[in-house]
């Protein structure tokens, strides 16, 4: 009986070592592949950002991360009632996507709402149409938005204590670059221009191919 327990313990330890070794290998490989492209550093590693999700798009359809992030994607967390930052950042991302299309590099701008109460699919659709026909808008329940936001370590806070209808939302303004099969590989701040973003994304896409 003691021997069986030792064998089981050794088997579990071996499995853990294999998983850790695989994670380290993937992290190191990603770093080597994209070393010439990457300019951002995040504690814990960019490759740990993101995770599975099921949300609702602007057409009212339930979609998964696999369906949405099926090509290089620029992911932004914001809300449609945002007075300036969100529309400007989202338009910048859409412009970068257009610049990449001119280079025959297909990418997708994705907007995930952090204000699901007001950002219904209908509202998101109107917002997306005003920005770009390529923009994918996503919303969901409060629990779903909390989960997907946390998976990208995105902070947001609704300031709706005094007025439940007319309020602002504090949120981070990073745009994340996601590559299918490689995960999150980079993020961009508000100071990055469309041309700079397009050059960076092209570098990552070419390095991954």
From TrEMBL:
Any one GO molecular function term: metal ion binding
Keyword Thylakoid listed: no
Binding-site list for Cu cation: 82, 86, 171
S-S pairs: 82-86
Protein origin, superkingdom: Bacteria
Residues spanning the signal sequence: none
Keywords assigned: Copper, Disulfide bond, Metal-binding
Assigned protein family: Belongs to the SCO1/2 family.
PANTHER family: ELECTRON TRANSPORT PROTIN SCO1/SENC FAMILY MEMBER, LINALOOL DEHYDRATASE_ISOMERASE DOMAIN-CONTAINING PROTEIN
Protein name: Protein SCO1/2
Species annotation: Paracoccus sulfuroxidans
């Amino acid at each position: 009986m003691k021997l069986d327990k030792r064998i089981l313990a050794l088997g579990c330890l071996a499995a853990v070592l294999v998983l850790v070794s695989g994670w380290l290998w993937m992290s190191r490989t990603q770093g080597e592949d994209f070393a010439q492209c990457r300019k951002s550093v995040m504690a814990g590693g960019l490759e740990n950002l993101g995770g599975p999700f099921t949300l609702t798009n602007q057409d009212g359809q339930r979609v998964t991360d696999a369906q949405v992030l099926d090509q290089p994607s620029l992911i932004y967390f914001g809300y449609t009632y945002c007075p300036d930052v969100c529309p400007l950042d989202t338009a910048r991302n859409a412009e970068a996507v257009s610049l990449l299309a001119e280079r025959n590099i297909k990418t997708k701008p994705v907007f995930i709402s952090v204000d699901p109460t007001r950002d219904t699919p209908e509202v998101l659709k109107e917002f997306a149409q005003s920005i770009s026909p390529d923009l994918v808008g996503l919303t969901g329940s409060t629990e779903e938005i909390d989960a997907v936001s946390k998976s990208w370590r995105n902070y947001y806070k609704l300031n709706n204590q005094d007025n439940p209808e007319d309020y602002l939302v504090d949120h981070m303004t990073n745009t994340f670059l996601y590559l299918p099969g490689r995960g999150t590989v980079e993020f961009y701040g508000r100071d990055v221009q469309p041309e700079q973003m397009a050059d960076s994304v092209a570098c990552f896409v070419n390095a991954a191919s």
